[in-house]
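Hi there. Long-time user, first ticket. I'm pasting a complex I've been working with (about 455 residues overall). I'd like to know whether the download I got is complete or cut off, because the file seemed smaller than I expected. Thanks.
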Amino acid sequence: MISDKKIRIIPSILYNKLNAIRGKNFEGWRVIGNVLQTTRLYSKRNIDELFFLDTEATRSQKINLEIIKEFTKDCFMPITIGGGIKSIEDIDNLLKMGADRVCLNTSAFNDSEFLANAIKKFGSQCIVVSIDYKNIDKIPIVFIDSGRIQTKKNLFDYIKKIDELGPSEIVLTSIDHDGMMKGYDIKNLKLLKKKIQTSIIASGGAGSYEDVYNLIKETGIQNISASSIFHFTEITPNTLKRYLSDKGLNIRK
Amino acid sequence: MILILDYNVGNVNSIIRAAELYSSNVKYSNNIEDILNAKKIIMPGQGSFDYAMENIHKLNIYETIRSVALEKKTPILGICLGMQLLATSGTENKFCKGLNLIEGTVKKLNCPSKYLPHIGWNSVNFEKENSLFNGIENKLDYYFLHSFHFECEDKKNTLATCEYHFKFNAIVKKKNILGIQFHPEKSLENGLKLLKNFILND
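Hi, the file is complete. Here it is re-exported in full:
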């Protein structure tokens, strides 16, 4: 049926100043390259969409628009930018720099009124919320500030609230799975997919073609964010799409 | 000069960059002189219909846009919200009059709200031949990001369609006025070819 959207493979580029970085479980961040070069490489690769997430902007309270302007220059593909966004003005500036959507995490958690206002002002299609979580005593708990701060919120309670506010999509990253390249958090993602109406982008854990295929098959989630897999293996977004297409999934032409 | 109309809506950097690939004379402005002198005008757009129309009225450019479109016959390309503003009226947030350059109404996509917005790549079917499509294969995928769609009063103005729960207009055209619902500036090579054709075709 037509409601069956095409699978989106979304590489995410985490960065800090000019460095593209990768971590494991949101720790031990390693510099894997220059953010401008990484972006240039992706923009030549016929990518469905890109996510840029500044892991330091919340802490430093500064969104570096100059760098963003530079790396979005040659991206003729959809771009979502996140990190440190806390005002309507921030969003305005990012859209002017070439972002199609912005991604809120810490500010959406701390100030749901801000999230509601942002959705009202820019339209839900423009606002993405990302949620990072980690199992604490087997209960998924929400973390903010790039995983640095543990909140008291249960993921399932929090996501319900966000779902009601209605952003265009919710990015879910399991900190326990992130960077481990051993597969996604299928158990929780499957439950969450059934619980909410907002479209989910699954993030954290892809290490092989099968990991991504299993995620889609088991959870029905059609939007896949990944990072380490494209950096530490031979797999590229295009070979991944070919693999999924050969498995009979609906991929962009 | 190719004018990218500045009416304070998002998503302009990429459309400016894309236009600059095919023209060395691209200007981002809302100056009345520039609107009058532009060889072609691109109206980008993101945001809500009523907010954007309010901006157009505040800038005092409503009549100027209509006159270059209807009298001077300047080719105008509206993208996404910019396309929807070409309609007679919109219904986002509240009823609101548009530029009325192509007769029609902008309505919410006809599907359960859990499937909105329509985000992602979807196939576009060229319903007619047009020089805009030169060198581009039919039924390729382009990037969509919207919850509303343009319903033309006159079906003749439909140039291309897309299906998402139901069939809606992906491209509308009436004489020198062109509207594209998806984002050609975000649709990689296929989208850039459409922009190239708009900018370079006579």
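A couple of notes from our side: Residues 8-244 of chain A form a domain with the TIM Barrel fold (CATH 3.20.20.70). Chain A has one domain: 8-244.
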